[in-house]
Amino acid sequence: MRDDLERLRHILEAIQNIERYVGRGKKAFLSDELLQVWMVRHIEIIGEAARATSSVFRENYPEIPWHDVIGMRHVLVHDYFGVDLDIVWQVVEHDLPDLKRKIEHIVRTHDHPDTPRGPS
User: Fold this and answer.
1) Each residue of 109-120: pLDDT tens digit?
2) What is the pLDDT of residues 80-113, one digit of tens each?
């Protein structure tokens, strides 16, 4: 369990690293290769950390789209030259905020056991 929570903390750290630059907007993202590499790399880290959680842990938290998170990592790692930057931006702008909220809640629940379980 402790290793699983550490993986969640890695996911949160990667999301925070992405958030540092997401405010620059889609236009900047599409025109700046460094931003693209930065965000893609951190999405890979998110997927790798999710993949490293135990299957029992993932089963206990079905509200997290584990399959999608891990799947995105596989696409980025194995088909880098075919990466659709519009999809990456959609993940960054629309999917990561919800994932962050859910993961923060799980971590809070474990750090403070009196926190009610379920989406915040």
Assistant:
1) 988 776 565 554
2) 567 889 999 999 999 999 999 999 999 999 887 7
Q: Is 42 a catalytic residue?
A: no
- Distance, in Å, from the CA atom of 105 to the CA atom of 77, rounded to the nearest integer, reads 28
Domain residue extents for the chain: 2-111
Q: State yes or no: is 94 an active-site residue.
A: no
Which one is catalytic: 2, 78, 94, 112? 78
Name the active-site residue from 7, 42, 73, 105: 73
Compute the distance between CA of residue 35 and CA of residue 22 in angstroms, rounded to an integer. Answer: 9
- The pTM of this model reads 0.87
Joined together, the tokens standing for residue 41 give: 């790399």
End-to-end CA distance of the chain: 21
